[in-house]
Each structure stands twice: as structure tokens, then as C-alpha cells.
Amino acid sequence: MKQAIYPGSFDPLTYGHLDIIRRARRLVDLLVVAVAPNVDKKPLFTVQERVEMLRQATRHMRGVRVEQFGGLSVAFARKRKIHLLIRGLRAVSDFEYEFQMALTNRRFDETVETVFMMPSESYSFLSSKLIKEAVSLGADVKAFVPSFVQRRLREKLDGRR
Ligand code: ADP
User: Fold this and answer.
1) Cβ 73 under 6 angstroms from ligand 1
2) Which of the 8 DSSP states describes residue 159?
3) CA distance linking residue 84 with residue 28, whole number of Å
4) Ligand 1 centroid distance, CA of 8 (Å)
5) Does 126 sit in the ligand 1 pocket, CB within 6 Å?
6) What tens digit of pLDDT does each residue of 53-106 get?
7) Cα–Cα distance between 85 and 91 in angstroms, integer?
8) I need a labelling partner for 33 at 20 to 30 A (CA). Which of 26, 58, 77, 135 fits?
9) pLDDT, tens digit, for every residue of 21-48?
């Protein structure tokens, strides 16, 4: 059975992430979407909330599992005996960081390969950070995130004011 891990913060998920999930799922039998706590990035949503939203958004997709993990993504991959990491690549801005991370991960574990996938061009400039900023300024972001995510964002951001 072919398996892959798609790690990230998903704070919150966007249609960009879902686009990558859909594409990756065509390549493997099981895609584990792995949510990192990422305390350094001061996430808006707790890891449980991020997992729960991803589960809701991927409910209808066969072969997708959402889990949380801690530590290095390569270590998580090794533990699960999965040798494929999926990362999304947007416009050039992602390249340097992703390049660095993929090569560092390779130093940690030669047997885990990182594969980059490009989203549809409509999501090439979309990021969770941008969405959080836009919603905090009152924008309607339903073209970029499912409506239940927009609702959760509003609740969360209103609660913080
Ligand atoms: P991280 O903190 O790991 O960068 P993100 O949730 O921001 O977490 O991203 C997880 C993965 O999804 C990364 O590989 C990122 O490049 C990719 N990604 C995020 N947004 C998009 C998008 N709009 N299109 C394609 N890939 C994306």
C-alpha cells in the first residue's frame, strides 16, 4: 500500500491545502495529513481545532486520515514506516525555505523523500496567514476557505478583540 504524509500547521486549512490533498491522494492509497502544534508560530487555533476542521473538510475523501504529531516530520514518517513527505509549493517565495527543509530532512533520514506539488494557480498566492489578516480586517474569504472555516475564524478573531 502506497502511503504519504502531508505535514504542516494548517492554521487554518485553506483551499490551497485541500487542493494539495486532492492531488496527493491520486498518487497514494493513504494520505496522512499531519498537523504540527507549531508553538513557535503562535497559532490562532489549537492543534485539536485544526485537526477537527481538517477532518470535517476531508470527511468525504477516501484514503485521507488526519492526525496530530509532535517533533520532526521525518521522525513521524519513520515511526509510521512511511517514506514519502508531501509539501505544497506556491510562488517562488516558498522555494528557499522548502529547499532547505527538504535537504535537512534528507540528512536526518535518507530513506524519506520529499515530493513537492503545485496547487491550481488560483491558490498559488494563498496562505493561512493572509486569510487571518483578511478576516481580521473584515474581508469575506469564502473563495479561499470553506464557509465553516470562515465562521470559525470570525468567532475566534472576534473573541480576541
Ligand atoms: P507550515 O507551517 O508547515 O509551512 P502550512 O500550513 O503553512 O504549514 O503549510 C503546510 C504545507 O502546505 C506547506 O508545504 C505549504 O507550502 C503548503 N501550502 C500552504 N498553502 C498552500 C497553498 N495555497 N497552495 C499550495 N500549498 C500550500
Assistant:
1) no
2) H
3) 10
4) 6
5) yes
6) 999 999 999 999 999 999 999 999 999 999 999 999 998 878 899 999 999 999
7) 19
8) 135
9) 999 999 999 999 999 997 777 899 999 9
